[in-house]
Inverse folding.
C-alpha cells in the first residue's frame, strides 16, 4: 500500500532563516505531488504541484519554492522566511492518469515563524 | 475560476443523529470531480467521499452519502448515525477533469458530535 511521509512534524524558525520541508511517497511510481498551505482556521491553498522529476508548477507568487529531485520526493524551500509563512503545510500525492484520480494527504508540518 | 463555498462555519449535533453539511461551487465546466475531506484534530486530511460529475447516482460510503445536484451546483454531505469520532473539520473540494491538477477547497465546516 502507498504511504506518504512528511518531516519535520513541527518547526519553529526565526524570521529570515531558511526552510526545507520534505515529503516522500512509498509504494507507487511517478505520482503527481502537491504542496498545500493551510492558514489557521482556513481552507487549503495549493502552492506547487509536480507531474514529474524537475517539473514544478507554481500556483501563487510567494516567498517559497519547490523542487522534485527524485520521483517520489518533493521539497518545499525558502531562502528567507517571513512571518506570513507560518501555517500548516500539507503534501499530497495522486496517481495519474485517470478519471478516478484522488489526492491523498500526508500528516503535515506545522511551521511557526517568529 | 472555480470557487467552493461552505456556508456553515460550525455545526453541532447529538450522537446518533443525522447531520447534513452544505457545499456549493461555481464553474463553467461540465466535467469535474467533487470531494469531501475530513480533518480531525490531528490535522491530517482524510478522504471521506468522492463524486464524479458525469455520474447521476449519488456516492455513498457506509454512513456517509452525498446529495449531488449538478444543475444547482450543490454537493452536500449527509452523515447518518453520527459518532463521536466524526468530530472534525469537513472540507468540500473541487477538481476539474482536465487541465490543472489542483483541488479548490471551501473554507470548511467545524462539526462537533456531542455525547
Amino acid at each position: 500500500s502507498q504511504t506518504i511521509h512528511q518531516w519535520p512534524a513541527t518547526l519553529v524558525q526565526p524570521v529570515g532563516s531558511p526552510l526545507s520541508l520534505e515529503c516522500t511517497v512509498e509504494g507507487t511510481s511517478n505520482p503527481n505531488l502537491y504542496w498545500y498551505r493551510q492558514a489557521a482556521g482556513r481552507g487549503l491553498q495549493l502552492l506547487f504541484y509536480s507531474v514529474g522529476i524537475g517539473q514544478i508548477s507554481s500556483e501563487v507568487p510567494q516567498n517559497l519554492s519547490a523542487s522534485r529531485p527524485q520521483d517520489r520526493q518533493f521539497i518545499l524551500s525558502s531562502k528567507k522566511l517571513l512571518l506570513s509563512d507560518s501555517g500548516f503545510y500539507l503534501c499530497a500525492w495522486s496517481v495519474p492518469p485517470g478519471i478516478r484520480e484522488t489526492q491523498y494527504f500526508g500528516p503535515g508540518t506545522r511551521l511557526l515563524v517568529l | 475560476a472555480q470557487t467552493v463555498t461552505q456556508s456553515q462555519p460550525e455545526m453541532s449535533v447529538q450522537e446518533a443523529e443525522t447531520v447534513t453539511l452544505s457545499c456549493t461551487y461555481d464553474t463553467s465546466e461540465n466535467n469535474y470531480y467533487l470531494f469531501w475531506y475530513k480533518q480531525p484534530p490531528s490535522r491530517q486530511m482524510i478522504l471521506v467521499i468522492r463524486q464524479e460529475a458525469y455520474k447521476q447516482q449519488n456516492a455513498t460510503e457506509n454512513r456517509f452519502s452525498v446529495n449531488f445536484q449538478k444543475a444547482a451546483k450543490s454537493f452536500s454531505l449527509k452523515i447518518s448515525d453520527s459518532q463521536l469520532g466524526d468530530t472534525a473539520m469537513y472540507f468540500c473540494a473541487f477538481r476539474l477533469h482536465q487541465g490543472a491538477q489542483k483541488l479548490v477547497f471551501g473554507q470548511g465546516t467545524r462539526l462537533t458530535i456531542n455525547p
